[in-house]
């Protein structure tokens, strides 16, 4: 690309580089022009988008109307979608939605309050607490899942059961029961993301001008008033952000359940999620068309949520 | 900033945060402790906090280092994939973010909207056709199969674009007058200016890649190609679990990230927050 002419231009001959330009090839001039350059810069995205996003999305739609067997694909119309109406998939949707809602309930207010408390300048060890609470986010779900599986294990000596023992209660099979299994999932989510969300809120707090609080104090506002009328509204962008990422993480949850229940099959599917069902149908049982239909349902869910979000919050930080 | 903290209240807060910090560190502590005990102990009593010096040893670690499992092969695979992915992802995403922010061109808004669309749709939805595509491209069970589909990532693009919005465009004109080519401007002027953004994104992307699970599990087939998380999870089988390797292996898997984190805490935390939630 860089022709020798290019380097010649740097030789201090005292001559303006202009006369040398015509010696460049047409291609070189084209590629180096400031009109072409932006397209060269965005080319990686365009290629990757076309090949690894647009094409697969279209394929998913097409596949969802097909029965895909090795070598043979047959058009089956809405057959896959009809088959989706079954109790197992219903359970998977319910689990995913419930998990998403519960993580929202836990992982928005708690980090917010903790961030506000930790943000006080009088608070000793702020940096230390912030860092320590971030550490769980560094561990992979596989490692974290293994640990939590053991903590919620059914043996008498496992942590949760020894905790029950302290209160004089009988050991319990935590992961065999839907409610306590879900508890384990939520505690795992709380453990991994509490520090991260707190961090987001802390960075949001940095951007609230202190004058607002001073003015409120002069007007005789109580600390609770300031929190309710200044802090919470000013943190709205962070809340929207945390809300958004939590919804996507919640709806596409898979690995946590995979790890807690040793593979993609929990007793009575108490931990089955939409992605878990997609994985089971599409990859484990090799019925790709049906798996694709599951993907389409997840896509519809996501698009609906996007629409709701657009309606309430405007396009997520489009221009600023 | 807020009103004055009173003494006892502040002490209460410290206690509260010590509890939360305990909650954060406790599972890691428990697993580290367990890694020094024989796995039979774990199978009999479960994960617990009993400190029994008589049964504690380095046996589990010694077993891993003997090399009877593919553990270090997995470790190496994870390192290769993480480094390659992070380097490529940063260069390519920075290019795109730069192109989108610093130039005016016809399709700019269309392309940026597409970046947002990719950001909004979970990858799990396209997993199956992507898997078929990888079979077609003969990339199954290869490092490239893991890396390629996600190497141009929307979040870094978004982040770099955001970062560059604070860089004056006069730099470019000045460089052009001095005879620098469009690409020279990017490589020689903008890339050095973007160093803090690179640091933040490098840490985030490396962490994601190191811990990535679902897609590598789909693409990678043979035992010698697995990454660390997939290898570790493969130790949990319906026929019995290799807890000795699993537990000690988990501790060794967390270790490098933890060390990097302790050294570069500031960048880690900036990397997480810089993602663009400025009020």
From TrEMBL, chain A:
Segments for region (Disordered): 1-25
Compartment annotation: Cell membrane
Classification of source organism: Bacteria, Bacillati, Bacillota, Bacilli, Bacillales
GO CC terms in record: plasma membrane
The ABC transmembrane type-1 domain, residue ranges: 93-309
Organism, as annotated: Paenibacillus terrae (strain HPL-003)
Name of this chain's protein: L-arabinose transporter permease araP
Keyword annotations: Cell membrane, Membrane, Transmembrane, Transmembrane helix, Transport
Keyword Transport: yes
Bias-annotated ranges (Polar residues): 1-13
Segments passing through the bilayer: 36-58, 97-119, 131-152, 172-194, 238-261, 288-308
Bilayer topology annotation: Multi-pass membrane protein
Biological processes, Gene Ontology terms: transmembrane transport
SUPFAM superfamilies, sorted: MetI-like
Homology family: Belongs to the binding-protein-dependent transport system permease family.
TrEMBL record, chain B:
Protein name as it appears in the record: L-arabinose transporter permease araq
Keywords: Cell membrane, Membrane, Transmembrane, Transmembrane helix, Transport
Family: Belongs to the binding-protein-dependent transport system permease family.
Tree of life domain: Bacteria
Family annotation (Pfam families): BPD_transp_1
N-terminal signal peptide: none
Transmembrane segments: 12-36, 74-98, 110-131, 143-164, 185-207, 245-264
GO cellular component, one term: plasma membrane
Location of the ABC transmembrane type-1 domain: 75-264
Record localization: Cell membrane
Topology within the bilayer: Multi-pass membrane protein
Family matches, as InterPro entries: MetI-like, MetI-like_sf
UniProt keyword Transmembrane helix, yes or no: yes
GO biological process: transmembrane transport
Organism: Paenibacillus terrae (strain HPL-003)
